Amino acid sequence: MTTTLDPALQTESSQAQLAAIERKLDALTHAVAELAEQAREERRRRQVWEDLQADLTPIVRDVYGLAVAQAAELEPYVQPEEILALLKRLLRHTRSFHALLDELESAQDFVRDFTPVAREMMDQATTSLDALEQKGYFSFLQEGLYVLEQIVTSFTPADVRLLGDNIVLILNTVKALTQPEMMRLLHDLTASLQEAQAEELPTSLVGLLGQMRDPDVRRGLALTLAMLKRISRQQRLVQTEGGKSV
Q1: Residues 17, 10: contact at Cβ < 8 Å?
Q2: 137: which of 130, 132, 149, 176 fits an S-S bond (Cβ 3.0–4.6 Å)?
Q3: Nearest Cα to Cα of residue 194 among 182, 205, 202, 186
């Protein structure tokens, strides 16, 4: 007995099989496309590597030749075992190199942190120097150097030695001259000399004898004579001591 299928069922079954075949074909096409893309990518990579190899081959050959030539020049001075010993020594001191690098990093950090402080100090120093220049300190120092140069060129070492031997006497003299009474005396003498130069003074013998009647004139002469007397006595004592020392 033969069973006859419904035509509608046969049509649906054929369509399902065709759809399944199409999906398999799509998957196969996609897989083939991926394989083709991978093949093209592999060819591109191989081509890039071949181009790089072609470009680097002459360079490597030149570097190798240069290294061989340099090694030939260094061969009388450096032996392979010495290089190997140096490498071993470097490897043994790896920790020391690490410590040294740490110190360098710390120094770099210190420099980076100190840079703003140094810049601020430099700005302050520049401001202070500019203020000193505005006040004339540098001009004064320059003139002081000129005075010092004149002293150095005008005095011999023997003069400087004599100055050192008599420095105590010089300082005592300066100290005595800077006392208030001596300063007033020098001021009065200077003022009196200026006033006397402005006046018409008698220069005849009669005029000079007439001034002797003035008590101030007689006192001034007495003081002058007393001062000259003391100077002469002091000079005689110095000469006497000098003769004895000789």
Answers
A1: no
A2: 132
A3: 186
